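Course exercise 7: structure representation. Students receive a sequence record and must write out the corresponding structure in token form. The form below is the worked example handed out in class, using RRM domain-containing protein (299 residues). Read each field label carefully; the graders check that inputs and outputs are placed in the correct fields and that the protein name is recorded exactly as given.

STUDENT ID: A-19
EXERCISE PROTEIN: RRM domain-containing protein
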Amino acid sequence: MEVYTRASEPEPEPSAKRGKNASGERKSKNTAVYVTGLPTDTDPDELAERFSKFGVIEEDDSGEPKIKMYAREDGTFSGEALIVYFKEDSVLLAVSLLDEAELRLGDPKTVMKVAQANFAHKSENKNGVSQPRKVVNKKAVTRRIGKMQKKVSEWGMDDGFGPQPDPEDDIQAPKSSRIVVLKHMFTVEELNKDPSLILDLKEDVREECESLGDVTNVTLYDNEPEGVMTIKFRDPVSAQACIIRMNGRYFDGRRIVAELFTGRQRFKRTDARDDYGDGADAEKKRLDEFAQWLLQEGE
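STUDENT ANSWER:
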């Protein structure tokens, strides 16, 4: 963590991951978020704890998280900070789920603004001339990348955050999965008493999830005792954001379980268009083909 006087917009440190733009010049990837509206007594550790739930925060050569807290001219904290993630996807998650959210849950006075950091103007000096890049220690960078990649591979496995595998299934969902499974959204008895609840639930879930990304399908499995629904997003980042938002939340007194679809689960629903016939083999064929449809790209 670094604290210094803020005289202008934040200046990025050299990124270890680089690509090339159309002109052939090497271009840094932007993996940083800029946070404003923080309480004056914000602690760097609580920033790290809150933001690490959405991805691995990059570390410097000494092993400290790359979090800069900006100070005013008099040395007091300005309420602004820069947090650098290791992956670009983490920026999308943090912005989607933390912008206008509370730093300290339950305290409305700690609502913060989170946006992707803007470094575009920092590549030029006051005369509009491109500035040379800083020289980096390639060996140190390589060691740091290896360490961060190991953390990325471990992220979400045992800390309760990030995409989690089905606890009853040894097969882990692929990170590219765009389908989220929600459990305990309803009971079969509730649906039997009020069939209109099916449409209401699908509309409510779609509206909630569309704030995270494009939703292509919402399905409710009315024959599942665990109250199962699935949401299919257009991209995997939105699916991960959905899990972070929904997993562990309470709905009508029930604790929701949110997980990625592994491709192995088979859920039952009433389907008036079912033309597979009767019997166990017909049921298995219907469920297998429906699972394949879920995994297909697009609509």
